[in-house]
Amino acid sequence: MSDFEDTHETGSIPESMTNIDKLTLELLINKSQYKKYVQKNDPAKYSDNQIYLGKIEKYRYKIEHLFSTLMENPEQQITSDIDRDFSFFIKTCIQYFELKEMENTAEDHNGDPTDDETLFGNIDNTNTHSASSSLWGNKINKTGKVSAYMPKYTMDSYVRTKKL
Question: In this structure, how many other beta carbons lie within 10 angstroms of the beta carbon of residue 70?
Answer without folding.
Answer: 19
